[in-house]
Amino acid sequence: MATHSKKKSSFWQKVKEYGLILLAGFLYAIALKYFVLPSKVILTGTEGIATALSYYFENYQLFIVLYVIFQAILLTFAFVKVSKVFALRSFVVVGTVVLALIVMPELRFAAPESQNERIILVIFGGILAGVAKALAFRNRGSTGDEDIAGAYFAIKYLKPVGSIAIIASIVSTTFGLALDFLKNGDFESVVNTLMYTCIYIFVSAETLNNLYRKFKIMMLAVITREHGPIGMAITSTSAHRTYTLHKGTGGRSLEPFHEVRTIITHEELPQMISAIQIVDPDCFYYYHDIEGISGRYYIAPIG
Question: What domains are defined for the chain?
Fold first, then answer.
């Protein structure tokens, strides 16, 4: 009976996750079609190359075709280098994006001309894209492109996934600006596109990094008299985590206590605090972000 209940719970959990993955794909398609592409900013990675060529030839269908080709290559890389689950869920997101880009009607929410509301399109498109990316990552998938490279290098070098977008943007932005200058021969237009592209990249990357914090590391410190049970709670909650003990004396009470410290990810924090409070409801704890963690630090792969 318990096994049946567990299987049923697992089934509905997967249904929920795939529902959120489909939502991520739909949100990303909305960001692209109604905000990013009309504002003529250059996307990051291979998406940037696809958008630059579509702007140059003024052909929306060309973007979709190139987008499909590039994502097929990157999804193959994800299958080999990241994980099968991650690749499959990324495929679902990308498939949703492509389908939505094809069937969604043409709408105009703001005028993309530089003297009108282009900045609104860029900022809102960046926020929406960042939310879609975070939603996909939190459910063990991605929106494809530089997010796949982001997942791979984040695991390897313990860097936030959104940081890879900044690096990936250099090549695609340079390529797109070169095509813009070749087509229009207007240096001012190139600089204008560069400014709006930088705003989009920054907004989307910051939104992603703030909503998806798997690769952000923190120190959790617990002041307690029950250091034994606290230590067991830490190691039983995460098999890859350990802790250090530091003896102390209360300044007012002069009573002895221990400070238990452990280094965990933001993703692990809620479950860890819950486990600690169960064994010692009266403990005092605090946490803060840390930088410069050793490369040997373990973080569970995406997917």
Answer: 2-211 (no CATH), 217-289 (3.30.70.120)
